[in-house]
Specification:
Low-confidence stretches: none
Shape: globular
Helix content: 40-55%
Number of helices: 2
């Protein structure tokens, strides 16, 4: 499953306590992990190539808005 692959990649990237959440009641979070005393929640989405550009554009606009809303 895709989440298992991401879990292995996170562990190799230095994350600890990497756990796949239950499929219901997780508010969209698929994996919980910890790195350098900070907890992270990951959503695992697998996109086709044609959808990847739209995803990147949405993420860039989100980070742009987030940057200005926190200043």
């Amino acid at each position: 499953e895709f989440e298992i692959l991401i879990q292995k990649l996170l562990i190799k990237s230095g994350y600890h306590n990497v756990k796949i959440t239950q499929t219901s009641g997780d508010y969209g979070i698929d994996i919980l992990a910890k790195k350098k005393h900070v907890f992270y929640g990951f959503q695992c989405k697998r996109y086709q190539k044609k959808d990847l550009l739209m995803l990147i554009l949405k993420l860039l606009s989100f980070f742009h808005l987030f940057k200005y809303s926190t200043n």
